[in-house]
Amino acid sequence: MNPTIKDIARRLNLSTSTVSRALTDHPDIKKETKALVLQLARKLDYQPNPIALSLKQKRTHILGVIIPETSISFFSKAISGVQEIAASAGYQVMICSSHESVEIEKQNVQTLLNSRVDGLIISVSKETRNIEHLAKILDKRVPTVFFDRVCESLHATKVVADNFTIAFKTTEHLITTGRKRIVFVAGPQNLYNSRKRLEGYREALKKYNLTVDERLIIYSNYEGENVKTYTESLLALKPPVDAIFAINDRTAIEIIHLIKQRQLKVPEDIAVVGFNNERFAAFFDPPLSSVDHPAFEMGKAAAELLLQHIDNAKLPTQKRVIKSDLIIRASSFKN
Amino acid sequence: MNPTIKDIARRLNLSTSTVSRALTDHPDIKKETKALVLQLARKLDYQPNPIALSLKQKRTHILGVIIPETSISFFSKAISGVQEIAASAGYQVMICSSHESVEIEKQNVQTLLNSRVDGLIISVSKETRNIEHLAKILDKRVPTVFFDRVCESLHATKVVADNFTIAFKTTEHLITTGRKRIVFVAGPQNLYNSRKRLEGYREALKKYNLTVDERLIIYSNYEGENVKTYTESLLALKPPVDAIFAINDRTAIEIIHLIKQRQLKVPEDIAVVGFNNERFAAFFDPPLSSVDHPAFEMGKAAAELLLQHIDNAKLPTQKRVIKSDLIIRASSFKN
DNA sequence: CTGTTAGCGCCTTCAC
DNA sequence: GTGAAGGCGCTAACAG
């Protein structure tokens, strides 16, 4: 059993308050008593009980995190970022994953609020359309930061990537290297970042006076279900497609795999660009061009903002945009 | 502010004890009172304060997890497994990552114990040789389960993959498909699972009367540092190597990348097998043979065992072995 | 400078 | 059946 303040007090014939004061560096305390207490505390390996502290101070020093899936690399990297900032500020992190389900997401919110976390960092599930459960958090004035998959209609602090810009730039890259029939594999359109990316794509085509062929826009989810089905239909189109901008790297490599099976060449026949710049992208054959999505930085930014909001409840909400980069590799070179 | 038992008591002109009894389904309580309390509790959306409960019951219903890195896919999948079991048993999970540093690992142990978690699930850092800090946990009788990277000398409950067997089988697969000069990229040898894999490799060679060429055993870390350096030396060896069994898929594809740059062919000239069976393995060119390491199942098993040990302190320690599978794809076909 | 008292939210004797 | 009292570990206001 861990020693308590009481144990120390008893042994030293002091009151618990005195011991508490010694331990917390209170000014009103005699040097010798303090030394005595500290010495014994060290000897007994005294560790303050954070639960008792939480009960008293109504602060748990725990940040709650809700993400769609722990094992999606973007989110696991974001978590690393959150952890880093949290740890350096003396906070713990409690993570729940919604498994892309609104229902579970609702439960997660409840669970974390019940646990009395000091604040929340949330990236919504792809099912999330109704956002009452999220609005309620804000009503309760629980400090909250949304990141990546945010809700436009929610007035809250947010951390996002520059989805529009990067999708625009990537599409532009494909156009300026000679592509005209560019497929866009878009994510669920209830998600802010998916919508923004699609806008960027459309805008780039517009700038170069290319007409938008709606058949070239695929509304997928992130999982890569049906990749085979839609890729095959795409490859059957006339006139043929000459570029594919995929929702993520996993999808991109699966598409490349299918393209190769058809005896077509990447990038000669079809250029492919992915999203996330996973570590394997550079070693793929051909090396995969990809948008470097700053997961770690986004996690860090979210945690930093959250801590600020916890420290100062009156801080106005803000939106932080993290820059993405297009990493051009062989899969999208000029043909 | 969340309503408390006191709030309910006041409104109903009852004592807090009565309300508490009503809420906890105590037998000594009049049905009507109970109904009244429950009704108001629901109306106020009363949620018991787990912190107060923890303080009293000395149980936090939190499992602590220490892993080397959140963003390594094996561990993020394992975490999913832990979460799933924990959630279904009403537990929360608190995750710390050691970033492969013993020092941070020590701090993590301290942090989680200070947080009064009910138990620990640990996979050690690759730096971990001295295990005093881990032994201390067991001395303190904190329920603990080690998984994957376990310490042989620690008498504790463990969850491991059948590293020896699967390395043996994989090596055998390479031998029986005609390979004779098989490179083994081994992990840090202070780690139990790395050692076991190497043993499996050696044993398989022995069975087929192949001599072990120590130059073909690479002692790497998991990160894939120096891959380029050692791969180039390997490719320069005489007689030439004809197979490489890599420590993980990331390393495997980087090696394949380097092999191709040399105008050598996989699998014709050199067969390559990876470890972890990441999702991209199937789409790689050539599709990568890989050992399917059951991360999710290991996480689940660890959590299940831990919960059992929490519920029953006298439970003897045990070791659970989870079966791995070799997924054979084109990168290691017979030449 | 130090001790006493009270209370965070809850549960659990012990009375009645 | 129900209420009052006490305590989990800690801190803070109030006395001295």
Describe this structure in a few short sentences.
Two copies of one chain form a homodimer. The first copy, chain A, is an alpha/beta fold and 335 residues long.
Please provide a written account of the structure:
Two copies of one chain form a homodimer. Chain A is α/β, with parallel strands linked by helices and 335 residues long. The first copy, chain A, has three domains: 44 residues, 434 Repressor (Amino-terminal Domain) (Orthogonal Bundle), CATH 1.10.260.40; 129 residues, Response regulator (Rossmann fold, 3-Layer(aba) Sandwich); 130 residues, Response regulator (Rossmann fold, 3-Layer(aba) Sandwich). Helix content of chain A is 43%, strand content 16%. Chain A has twelve helices and twelve strands. In chain A, the strands form two sheets. Chain A has a six-stranded parallel sheet, sandwiched between helices. In chain A, strands 7-6-8-9-10-12 form a six-stranded mixed sheet, sandwiched between helices. In chain A, α5 packs parallel to α12, α8 packs parallel to α9 and α10 packs across α11. At the A-B interface, α4, α5, β2, α6 and α11 of A face α4, α5, β2, α6 and α11 of B. Chain A binds a DNA duplex (16 and 16 nucleotides) through α2 and α4.
Helix and strand topology:
2 copies of one chain form a homodimer.
Chain A: H1 5-12, H2 16-23, H3 31-44, H4 50-57, E1 62-67, H5 73-88, E2 92-97, H6 102-114, E3 119-122, H7 132-139, E4 144-147, E5 157-161, H8 163-176, E6 182-186, H9 192-207, E7 217-219, H10 227-236, E8 243-245, H11 249-261, E9 271-275, E10 289-292, H12 295-311, E11 319-322, E12 325-327
Parallel strand pairs in A: 1-2, 1-3, 3-4, 4-5, 5-11, 6-7, 6-8, 8-9, 9-10
Antiparallel strand pairs in A: 10-12
Helix pairs in contact in A: 1-2, 2-3, 5-12, 8-9, 10-11
Chain A binds a DNA duplex (16 and 16 nucleotides) through residues 4-6, 14-18, 20-21, 24, 28-30, 33, 48-49, 51-58.
